[in-house]
Design brief:
Blueprint: E1 2-6, H1 15-26, E2 30-36, H2 40-45, E3 49-53, H3 56-61, H4 64-71, H5 76-85, H6 87-108, E4 112-115, H7 122-129, E5 132-137, H8 160-188, E6 210-212, E7 229-231, H9 247-254, E8 260-263, H10 272-286, E9 290-293, E10 308-311, H11 316-319, E11 325-328, H12 332-340, E12 345-347, H13 354-364, H14 378-390, H15 392-406, H16 410-423
Parallel strand pairs: 1-2, 1-4, 2-3, 4-5, 5-6, 6-7, 8-9, 8-11, 9-10, 11-12
Helix pairs in contact: 1-16, 10-14
Length: 429
């Protein structure tokens, strides 16, 4: 079968889908992955056909305006304000992305579409082509439950009614924001306007299946989720068999005690140098060796002591088992990699789902309390590092969770669910 995967965002929004695409190829499906142009080489390097989407939305993040937006977006109200502020600038880019997704589908003619939440054209394209689709996400954000509120809204401990209401609020806001794009797009491809927007429903009211790239060892499936919602286990993209670590990294690891890894992906913000200096001071205050990953966010420290090594990037599945703890921004992928390795996480959330993962990892006993980026200091980071590396209860819990995650086959589970969904697609007459 021919399967189109549509995703958009940072590397964390692409890598799990590449892993899933490879799993689908291994199961003898024909896969094309559509995403931003900046990830073309990454997608093709892993043997998947690439579908073009422009890079303009992501390029905003690389500007001072984009970095300011990230630093000032800490809750839902900030998100709404920033979306309104940037609406005129973003609209043509959003429209182009939808059109490009349609062009990929027209060229590839898939039998089924898997899509990231940011690839909002996908279910409408599936409707037009008369094929099935499924929302695929590493974040438990969309399927309502009485057990917890929508993850970027405050947990007010008001019970199930509030928790379920929070999802209705988000669905309404999403419909308000995306509604005009979707209305125009549906008209462009010859579809009637939607009677009612619902992120989890097809135009005729059927549930859209949702695949969550999560482990139940980390987040158990809510008892009130519908049958259309699945938890598969994580979709890890492990290093290639011929990959070899740089000599300086091997030498550093061999020279002393396991270091603490620090990396914030694309989240360094407007002051990456200041953040790097804070991290260096914290590692030295804590009396530990460290590895700083510069990442997409250009976390680039200057002169380093012998106890700290700077790297650009290294496969997490190789490096994390060799460190003592992981300091990161709380992205879903890095959180999963740290937990799989059985290592404590010190999470410094910036925005979005990151505060949720910070709170949740702490509630699991797998790391200290998260430190919001705006409250980060060398002192409180050093204290968190000391707690993570010396508390035996945290280490026992991370060992337990890591063992459960390593025993799962998230990609295999997802492939089996997708194949079953494809068999049940209702094609038009």
């Amino acid at each position: 079968m021919k399967i189109l995967i549509a995703t958009y965002g940072s590397r964390g929004d692409v890598q799990p889908y590449v892993a899933l695409g490879k799993g689908l190829q291994d199961a003898e499906h024909d896969v094309t992955l559509g995403t931003s142009e900046r990830f073309r080489d990454f997608v093709e390097h892993h043997g998947l056909a690439y579908g073009y989407m422009n890079d303009e939305l992501l390029s905003i993040i690389d500007t001072d305006q984009g970095r300011e937006m990230l630093e000032n977006t800490t809750n839902l109200f900030d998100v709404v304000k920033q979306n309104i502020k940037m609406a005129k600038q973003v609209r043509p880019m959003q429209t182009a992305q939808m059109r490009e997704t349609w062009e990929i589908a027209q060229n590839f003619r898939p039998d089924f579409i898997l899509y990231h939440p940011k690839a909002g054209a996908a279910p409408h394209i599936a409707e037009k082509l008369g094929i099935g689709c499924a929302l695929a996400t590493p974040i438990p954000m969309f399927v309502p439950t009485a057990e917890r509120p929508f993850i970027v809204l405050p947990n007010l401990n008001l019970g199930g009614w509030y928790n379920r209401l929070s999802y209705k609020i988000i669905n309404s806001l999403t419909g308000f924001y995306l509604g005009r794009y979707i209305k125009d797009f549906r008209g462009d491809i010859g579809l009637a306007p939607l009677k009612k927007f619902d992120f989890l429903k097809t135009a005729d009211g059927r549930d859209i299946p949702v695949l969550h790239a999560l482990s139940e060892a980390v987040l158990p499936r809510p008892a009130d989720w519908p049958d259309s919602a699945h938890i598969t286990g994580y979709w890890f993209l492990d290093r290639e068999s011929d990959w070899t670590p740089p000599r300086d990294l091997l030498t550093f690891l061999e020279k002393g005690a396991p270091p603490v890894y620090v990396g914030f992906g694309s989240m360094a913000g407007r002051s990456p140098q200041l953040l790097a200096e804070t991290v260096m001071e914290a590692l030295q205050f804590a009396g530990v060796r460290g590895i700083i990953a510069t990442g997409w966010g250009s976390l680039a420290p200057d002169a380093l002591p012998d106890s700290i090594l700077k790297i650009e990037s290294t496969p997490h599945d190789w490096l994390f088992p060799r460190v003592s703890a992981v300091v990161h921004h709380g992205g879903a992928g890095t959180t999963a990699a740290g937990l799989r390795a059985g290592k404590p996480s010190i999470i410094v959330p910036f925005f979005g789902d990151q505060p949720f993962w910070g709170r949740h990892v702490h509630s699991l006993g797998a790391g200290p309390k998260p430190i919001p980026r705006k409250k980060l200091s060398a002192h409180n980071l050093a204290m968190a590092i000391r707690e993570a590396t010396s508390n035996p209860d945290i280490q026992r819990k991370t060992d337990e969770i890591g063992g459960k995650i390593r025993s799962e086959d998230g990609i295999g589970n997802a492939v089996a669910i997708i194949e079953k969904l494809m068999l049940n697609v209702r094609h038009p007459l």
